[in-house]
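Action item from last week, closing it out:
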Amino acid sequence: MWIDLAGAAVLAACAFAFIYLTFYQGGHTAAELGELKGLIKAAGGDLADAQAARERQRASLKSQQAELAAGGQLPTQVSLEAYFQRLSRLAQDHHIRVVRQNPLSSRQYPGLLEQRCAYEVMGSMPDLARFFSAVETEEAWADIGFLKITNAESGPNGVDADRLASLTISLFTASKVDAAATGGG
């Protein structure tokens, strides 16, 4: 009898476990499975969004690299006349008087042509400083290579005296150089 009772208890426990796992735990498992499917679907959407963002970033990077490559290259030609017209406008905008401009000899380096000009301007020291800064930040590939500033005219009691600035402006362009010109063979 104890064996029958123990067998019945084991059978009842197994039946309870089966019913519990099938109906009660199974419902939770189905709910959890649905929840996991939802999380997987959301993660898939997040992954797609991240991939789309990565592609937009790649496209933006390529665009910026192309713009940088195009904008950072030396021009192959520069009109000196047009450059000096812009320079005269800069001088005028900064209250500077152009005294003289003389072309100097050009210098050629492998892949680079430097066209130089002696330039003399007159104005107050603050105006000259603003003018020099504007020349350096001008879009053209130009540089002030030499600068000498002397007193030109004195104002009352030496205040706001005009200065004479002699400078050499170098304008750079890209150039093709022959192997024979550079000593190569």
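Closing note: Residues 178-185 have pLDDT under 50 and may be disordered.
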